[in-house]
Specification:
13 helices; 11 strands; about 325 residues; six-stranded mixed β-sheet; 2 domains; about 45% helix; D-Maltodextrin-Binding Protein, domain 2; globular; alpha/beta; five-stranded mixed β-sheet
Length: about 325
Amino acid sequence: MKKWWLAAVLLGLSAVLAACGGNGNAQGGAKEKMVIGYFPNIDHAPAMVARENGYYEKALGKGVDVEYITFPDGGTFMAALKAGEIDAGLVGPGPVLNNFSNGADVKILAGASSGGTVVVASEKSGVDSVEDMAGKTFITPGIGCTHDVQFETYLQQLGNDKLASSRIGGTLNHVTGNPASYAAMFESGKVDLAAVPEPWGSILVENGAKVIISSDDIAYGNTLPNTVLVAGSKLSEDKPELAAKLVDAHQQAVDFINDNPDKARKIAIQSIKDLTHQEMDPAIVSKAMDRITYTTDVNEAVLKEFGTSSYDLEFLKENPSFDGLVAHGE
């Protein structure tokens, strides 16, 4: 009986050890987890391509499990990053600068895309030019988000006090919402204008909206990194080897988009369909992607100018220094 009991114990112990080893890395320890976030927007195509082609998984190795979370706006992304719910991902510079100025632990590792923000007006709005905007309602993904700052900076540069958000004494009413819902909001008449990323700008135009401010004319146009790859210091400083591998995978994705635009478009269309249940016309997506430059470069000087604009628009209480924000930039 004792021999039988000892054999059972040893068998059970072997099973436990095998189970632990099966979920571990090459050294037998538990796998690390990397959670990456991004949005269902065309300017976030590098994350979609990297996910589809397995670039993150290949670069980080078998000892790291990669998971993905998608977000509707930069505010919720940054909240997740600060809470440790994600380790890295793609987001617009507006929320990054706003949170960094308030002491958030965030580093920009690389650029992802630039350009692509447009301001469009609904058919029902009666807006045919910027001069018609007074008293109208505009929508952006978030308060102080990248597209919001670009639009409001453009208006501020006109020098017309009425053409500003009511938040800072102007006549324009500002609301926020998920870009995937803008077409319905235009149709209902709830909003007149949208400062929006691609492909949603092109989709709204296809449905009858009119471009009032093009991606070339809006503030910071194509010079601003419209989307950046960011991480917290637990990754960028405590695990620099993993951070470097993540950047390498990101570079592969950007190169793939530039070398294989047709394949990248198909990946983006399918990814956005999976996330939003909206299937987009390939011709529309092709036009949208043509308005965007995919690059890992980061123009730190432009980022700092953009941060000053956020302060001038009263999204930031103080005009902070952004030194140290960019871990890998120009």
